[in-house]
Specification:
This protein is of the alpha/beta class and 285 residues long. It contains 11 helices and 13 strands. β1, α1 and β2 form a beta-alpha-beta unit. α9 runs parallel beside α10. The longest helix has 15 residues. The two termini are 34 Å apart. The mean pLDDT is 90. This is Fatty acid-binding protein DegV. GO terms for molecular function: lipid binding. Keywords: Lipid-binding. It holds the Pfam family DegV.
């Protein structure tokens, strides 16, 4: 009789808290670091508190992966209860979270923890987590779930529009000159996740609505290839725009579910307030 499976993810998966509770998903938080102070994402600090702190100090926090001992502490109670663990991490290109989870898995009883690299971030991970959760509930084994995830990991479409270049600039992800020019010309970069990394996909000049509309058009162009189980709109303090996107996508894609999720502190500290993202999965090719 195979043991029960429990799905874990890190705090960058940006899943609604109601889903985390309903499906008993284990969450291992990353850290947001202000000077000497390390705060657990979503546990010790909220996005609102993060932005207030950035305004107050004028500097951005750094972010850090959970340590192997954090993972051991998170996984051990489940293992002791007889559960086998499948952990989905933020892309190994973006963080040492995956590496540290592997180290922890090696310290724990053999075969009890499987670590999967999502090659993604934010709700792009969340989409894979939900696939894993539903597969586990339908009786799939961990190797079967890993096989399923491996077939769709490169099919996750993850695109988001950044409202201000300040955070990318302060975080060293865009040069000072670009920041000034971008602010003057109101250029809004749209970032995509490609090959596990964040890549500027294109720029939209003018109002943010133009960028949101472009994201909708890009998604609609893929509607025949889209896995229509779930589309996620994720945002940082941009609820109105997220609802606009949700309504448009609900009407035009026929997806079973278009959900809104709010980004956690790690995503917020890299992208800044008023960021809006759109994530869905294409059918395996």
């Amino acid at each position: 009789m195979p043991g029960t499976i429990r799905i874990f993810a890190d705090s960058t998966c940006d899943l609604p808290s109601s889903w985390i509770e309903e499906y008993n998903i284990g969450i291992v938080p990353l850290y947001v670091v202000f000077g000497e102070q390390s705060l657990r994402d979503g546990v010790d600090i909220t996005p609102e508190q993060l932005y207030a702190k950035v305004d107050q100090t004028g500097s951005l926090p750094k972010t850090a992966a959970p340590s192997p001992s954090d993972f051991i502490a998170a996984f051990t109670p489940s293992i002791e209860q007889g559960e086998d663990i499948l952990f989905l991490s933020i892309s190994s290109e973006l963080s040492s979270t995956y590496q540290n989870a592997l180290i922890a898995a090696g310290e724990l009883p053999e075969g009890r923890v499987t670590v999967f690299d999502s090659r993604n971030l934010s709700s792009g991970i969340g989409l894979l987590v939900m696939k894993a959760v539903h597969a586990a509930r339908e009786g799939s084994s961990i190797p079967q779930i890993v096989k399923l995830l491996s077939s769709i990991v490169n099919e996750v479409e993850c695109e988001f529009v950044v409202d201000t270049l300040d955070y990318l600039y302060k975080g060293g992800r865009c040069s000072g000159m670009q920041n000034i020019i971008g602010s003057l010309l109101k250029i809004r970069p749209v970032i995509k996740v490609m090959d596990g990394s964040m890549t500027p996909a294109y720029k939209v000049r003018g109002k943010k609505e133009k960028a949101l509309d472009q994201m909708i058009q890009n998604a609609l162009a893929q509607v025949d290839n889209m896995d229509n189980d779930l589309i996620v709109v994720v945002h940082t303090m941009a609820e109105e725009e997220a609802r606009f996107l949700q309504k448009q996508l609900q009407e035009k894609t026929g997806a079973k579910q278009v959900s809104i999720s709010t980004a956690g502190c790690v995503i917020c500290s890299h992208c800044g307030p008023q960021t809006v993202g759109l994530m869905y999965t294409k059918k395996p090719s």
